[in-house]
Write a structure and sequence with these properties.
Length: 78
């Protein structure tokens, strides 16, 4: 495990400390989870962008054409 020294504005540090306390966790755990969420979000965004570049509109439309044209069930409607 790695230790890092981090400079935070006082307001952000206080907010993180309060939220960690409300969450019942340490500030270290809270910040670690927050960073993990951000890393996951950016990694997912990059993956989806790369995957979209490999896609082809004609193949997508062909796949959609195979879907049955039936009304959605009540639980699936907004």
């Amino acid at each position: 495990m790695t230790t890092i020294s981090l400079r935070l504005p006082d307001s952000l540090h206080e907010a993180a400390r309060e939220l960690a306390q409300q969450d019942g966790s340490s500030i270290n755990h809270f910040v670690t989870l927050a960073l993990a969420e951000k890393v996951a979000a950016l990694t997912t965004k990059t993956y989806l962008e790369n995957r979209a570049q490999r896609g082809e509109a004609t193949k997508f439309r062909a796949a959609l054409a195979k879907v049955a044209d039936v009304p959605s069930i009540e639980e699936d409607t907004l």
